[in-house]
Amino acid sequence: MAYSELVKRFDRVRDYMRDFLIFGFKTREDFGQKSARTYDNERRRIESWLGDGLRWEYRPGGKAVFLSVDASGLPSNPLYRAWQSKSFTDNDITLHFYLLDLLSDGRPRHAEEVTDELADRCERLFELSTVRRKLKEYGALGLLDMQKQGRRLCYALSPCSLDVLFPDKTGLKEFLGFFGETAPLSVLGSFLAGRTGDGDAQIRFKHHFIVHTLEDQILLTILEALRAGRRLELTNVSGRDGRESVCRVVPVKLVVSVQSGRRYLVARRLDKRRFSTFRLDYIKALTPLPGQDGDENYRALAELRLAHAWGPALPGNERTQRFSMTVAVDEEHEPHIIQRLRREGRGGEMARLEPGLWRYTNEVHDVGEMMNWVKTFIGRIVALEGDDQRAIDRFYDDVRRMAGIYGGEA
């Protein structure tokens, strides 16, 4: 049987795309949980969406598949096609257009009235239960307005259209082109951009994290739980061995790495009574649970610790370590170095010791997490000082090893 590009459940597509695109370089034999035919169908489906972006190479273990694209050359995120892949029946698509056409006059109708008018106008008999279910679904999506008239629930086409939202379309093409590629849940912006019919907005991005759209449904569930003060049952997939674990957490905050672009959920893990950080692309499923008294205390405590956290991970205690870096800067020709220290220092203090000499100071939980950032100032660093001497010594050891590799004195 030929495969179909349409699927019933997005989470199934997400699982395979995570394996292909995030974990990457997997062969057919690595997918032992499904049949070979299922693997082939999913791979061909993803390949039809990504085109030449899905590459492969032959390895000792077999043919390994991976994603390889130049993100700066993409006019739009090709992974958005996955959100447009939901399957439907002939009855579904027919009822969709009949309903929108019938309700386009703006007059509210209840389910029985809609069913009768569809039979009269379209000469097509739909079950009342089917019509009622579709009206309720579209009401929840915001396509239809719901209002009570007596004891009956009536539906009318929502007046919230693109023209109403943006009556003045000046700059709309550029706005949607940017929002549709960068913002959280940006697939919405991409959908609206497609509705304008203006085509490519000619915007390109140097750092374009296209795989984030695979976790947008997870992101939305977390945002809803944070707003409602709810807990979550979380199924997490290990990036090392692929094992799944289930735990209950109090969601605290969503954070984004400015270095890798990865998104994380900071949460209080109830079974281990500590804070944990979960990568959103490793979260397989979320189930909302009722909140409990005292959950706000966890959130308040996390905010205090995040104030001194360099990365997304939170420590088990509130102990901080002092760190300072003195750098030499040509203030006339390199003002951007001073701007970088202020902009990227994450709450650190800047002090001008003398012309051309600046000191950056911060209090953090883990000095070791800072070192990748500190290394970007190599060549300007005059001195490093702080409470974590091991991290500082490791930095100088790395510099000496690098010098040795390039023929200098190790």
Concise synopsis of the structure shown:
The protein has 410 residues and is an alpha+beta fold. The protein has 13 helices and 14 strands. The termini are far apart.
Protein described:
With 410 residues, the protein is α+β, with helices and mostly antiparallel strands. The protein has 13 helices and 14 strands. Strands 9-8-7-6-10 form a five-stranded antiparallel sheet. Strands 12-13-11-14 form a four-stranded antiparallel sheet, with helices on one face. Helix 4 packs across helix 5 and helix 7 (172-182) runs antiparallel to helix 8. It is elongated, with a radius of gyration of 27 Å. 20% of the residues are buried.
Compile the SSE list and pairings.
Layout: H1 10-23, H2 36-50, E1 54-59, E2 62-67, H3 90-102, E3 109-110, H4 111-122, H5 128-141, E4 144-149, E5 152-157, H6 162-165, H7 172-182, H8 187-196, H9 216-228, E6 231-237, E7 244-256, E8 263-269, E9 274-279, E10 283-289, H10 295-306, E11 321-328, H11 335-344, E12 349-354, E13 357-364, H12 371-374, E14 381-386, H13 389-405
Antiparallel strand pairs: 1-2, 3-5, 4-5, 6-7, 6-10, 7-8, 8-9, 11-13, 11-14, 12-13
Helix pairs in contact: 4-5, 7-8
Average pLDDT, rounded to a whole number, is 84
Q: Give the CA-based shape.
A: elongated
Helix content: 25-40%
- Which blocks of ≥5 consecutive residues have pLDDT under 50? none
Structural class: alpha+beta
Tally of helical runs: 13
**How do the helices and strands follow one another from N- to C-terminus?**
HHEEHEHHEEHHHHEEEEEHEHEEHEH
Biggest sheet, strands in spatial order?
9-8-7-6-10
Q: Give me the count of strands.
A: 14
The fraction of residues in strands falls at 15-25%
Radius of gyration (CA) equals 27 Å
Q: Report the end-to-end length measured between terminal Cα atoms.
A: 64 Å
Largest β sheet strand count, sense and barrel closure: 5 strands, antiparallel
